[in-house]
Design a protein that fits this description.
Radius of gyration: 24 Å
Order of helices and strands: HHHHHH
Number of helices: 6
Largest sheet: none
Shape: extended
Structural class: mainly alpha
Strand content: under 5%
Length: 194
C-alpha cells in the first residue's frame, strides 16, 4: 500500500512539473515573440513590488526601536515608493532603467568570468569560462551601443530566453523523475517476483 502511495505521489509530482514547465515554455516563447510587452510587464511588476516594499518599510519603521531606525526605515520606504510609482506611472522609463541594469550586469559578469578564467588557466576547461566572459562583454557592448533603442526588446527578450530555458529544464527534470520512478518500480516488482 505504501509503495502505491509513493508511486502516485511521484506521478503527481511528474505531472505538476511537466505542466508547470510547459506553461513556462509557452510564456518564454510569448516573451520572445513580444519582447516589448514582456519588458513593460516586468517593469510594471517591479514597480508594484517596490510600492509594496515601501509600504512594508514604513509599516516596519515604528517597530525599529530607535529614532534613527525609524527615520531610516521611513526614508527607505519613501525611496521604494517613489521609484515604484515612477515605474508604474511610466513603465518605459522603468524599462530603460532595467536595460541599464542588464548592461551593468553583463559588464560585471564578463569581467568576473574573464578574471576567473585567467586565474584558473591550469584547468582544462578555462577557455569556456573565458569565452563566456567575452560573450557577456560583447552583449553589454551591443546593448549599450544600441541604447535607447535596445530598451524596446532587450529586457523582454532576456526574460523570454530565461523562461524558455527554465521551462525546458523543468520538463527534462520531470521526465527524468518519471523515468527514475518507473525504473524503481520495475526493480521493486522484479525483487518481489524473485
Amino acid at each position: 500500500m505504501s509503495q502505491a502511495t509513493s508511486v502516485d505521489t511521484s506521478s503527481e509530482q511528474f505531472h505538476g512539473g511537466v505542466i508547470a514547465g510547459a506553461i513556462i515554455v509557452v510564456l518564454g516563447f510569448l516573451a520572445i515573440l513580444f519582447p516589448f510587452f514582456a519588458g513593460i510587464s516586468a517593469s510594471v511588476l517591479l514597480g508594484a513590488l517596490l510600492v509594496v516594499g515601501g509600504i512594508v518599510h514604513v509599516g516596519h519603521a515604528f517597530s525599529a526601536g530607535s529614532f534613527w531606525g525609524v527615520i531610516w526605515q521611513i526614508l527607505l520606504g519613501i525611496l521604494y515608493g517613489v521609484v515604484g510609482i515612477m515605474f508604474l506611472a511610466n513603465p518605459v522609463v522603468g524599462l530603460a532603467s532595467l536595460t541599464i541594469l542588464a548592461i551593468a550586469f553583463f559588464i560585471v559578469d564578463g569581467v568576473v568570468e574573464i578574471g576567473w578564467a585567467v586565474a584558473g588557466r591550469g584547468n582544462r576547461r578555462w577557455m569556456w569560462l573565458l569565452a563566456s566572459g567575452i560573450l557577456s562583454l560583447i552583449v553589454a557592448g551591443l546593448l549599450w551601443v544600441g541604447f535607447p533603442a535596445t530598451t524596446e526588446w532587450a529586457v523582454g527578450l532576456l526574460l523570454g530566453v530565461n523562461l524558455l530555458f527554465t521551462g525546458f529544464s523543468m520538463l527534462m527534470l520531470g521526465r527524468a523523475t518519471r523515468q527514475a520512478n518507473t525504473e524503481e518500480t520495475s526493480a521493486d516488482e522484479r525483487s518481489q517476483e524473485a
